[in-house]
């Protein structure tokens, strides 16, 4: 480069008017006004206008006329004030322009497959294939920069709180429970595999046994599971652990961090202490363990009053231990057609229920497809229980408690959007705690840990580990923001005999426990302190703070929902030589490939592999 940058675009101010400055960047736009060429130059900070005027320097005008979008250039000239009528108030540099007297073309560019513009309307798969172009868009760059600021703010805060950032291994041992592991075959240990960490759970507990007391890490984690908008096969987690603490201590330090983070990054004040809601309360009121509390539409329980009604479809469910719950929609009578009400019933079936009923309290009287099955007293009881008034609609469904909560919870979110009840500029942060210790695995017909097997139960529930596992609640807690789970943590088991009881409740034999977790159980015998911690999904946190709908918008190089990278075309096939080195044999026939891709001119497309 003959020309060396002196200023970033947005660093140019009135102070530098009249000075000779040099800027570097990409051509964002080109305009020729009667021989005077105007170029919008884009760099990592923003835009500045370049002017190539024959009356200033004729020699640069001809090469300037050949510039096209995304050419990489360096330009030197005198910074000038734009005339009032040509000022662009939307840009920080909209009142300035650089009158160029020297131009250097650093690289040319093909015509991009899409415009480098924040308002582009292009298929996401094309954006991901050309991610290096997509990342040039200012809005996406700002989100990546916001992620950097969030990460640095977290690091600074936790360092000031006495935490130490410690790395843990990326290749470890596969363990039971949780999601599927990503396995890495070992070349030097034939037939054996490492697992990529689903989280640093075991190692951070070992660090507490080691006396580090306060640990954190911006940790890369890997889970081979079905993907969603807020889930990737590889993701980043803020991981932290503390010794000699109870639940309130872990919550307090994280509340201070959240408050500090939102103030520093968004200038938003989060009131603390944060509300705390038990799992059971959250499910009873919202049908979700990550409730969006920005709007109402809380559940109404009709189970008791339905036990003696004449409508057998509800009475039988109530009498057999199921649940009948509903939602009152204030003023919805005039806003919802019969078709919409029927569509709610269809949606409830789509979400896994058996359907729902509705009661429309019109000015001229009650309208409901099931009203004829209730007498006047029963209908009055329903209206009183719902607190329904003229103009309201009440929807109601009957099923098992789990299905009722799940289906009605999803309908609640749909209705919140339908009636525009959700303030997108509101930040509702809360804790949900006292989660169930176990959940029933229908496929394997056994109890499994809902959180993980190192979570400590509530002390008063220890006696129910074997006799009533479904009733055991834990010292576990989730951080929820606007209906999204941001973090999950717990107070851990720190005594070997207590951990052995937990493995027994999970039907993990002593032999299996020793094989999988022997080193950890052994560590507990050497003075493990009480400890607890949390893992915060950094991708989700940035997604929420940037007000995006998917974590792919805040990750530089994300995977698709099919767990592939469209830019690099990963995953790919391994060639026969690589497979042999790893002591793997595939049951699928070899897949021909080009000689350039493989020394053996053949690669293996494994349907399944054997060590």
Describe the structure.
The protein is α+β, with helices and mostly antiparallel strands and 611 residues long. 28% of the residues lie in helices and 25% in strands. The chain has an 8-stranded mixed β-sheet, with helices on both faces. Helix 4 crosses helix 6 (247-266) and helix 14 packs antiparallel against helix 15. It is globular, with a radius of gyration of 31 Å. The two termini are 53 Å apart.
The count of DSSP E runs of length 2 or more, i.e. the number of strands, is: 27
Distance between the termini: 53 Å
Biggest beta sheet attributes: 8 strands, mixed
Helix tally?
Answer: 17
Low-pLDDT residue intervals, each spanning 5 or more residues? 593-602
- The portion of residues assigned to helices is 25-40%
Shape: globular
State the strand order across the main sheet: 6-9-10-22-21-20-17-11
Brief account:
With 611 residues, the protein is an alpha+beta fold. Helices cover 28% and strands 25% of the residues.
What's the topology here?
Blueprint: E1 20-33, E2 36-42, E3 47-52, H1 61-65, E4 72-81, E5 96-107, H2 124-129, H3 131-134, H4 138-160, E6 164-165, E7 183-185, E8 193-195, H5 201-209, E9 214-222, E10 234-243, H6 247-266, E11 276-278, H7 279-286, E12 299-301, H8 303-306, H9 312-319, E13 323-329, H10 338-350, E14 357-362, E15 365-367, H11 376-386, E16 393-399, H12 401-418, E17 429-433, E18 438-441, E19 446-449, H13 464-467, E20 476-481, E21 484-491, H14 496-505, H15 510-524, E22 531-537, H16 538-545, E23 574-575, H17 576-581, E24 585-586, E25 590-592, E26 602-604, E27 609-610
Parallel strand pairs: 3-5, 6-9, 11-17
Antiparallel strand pairs: 1-2, 1-4, 2-3, 4-5, 7-8, 9-10, 10-22, 12-13, 13-16, 14-15, 14-16, 17-20, 18-19, 20-21, 21-22, 23-26, 24-27, 25-26
Helix pairs in contact: 4-6, 14-15
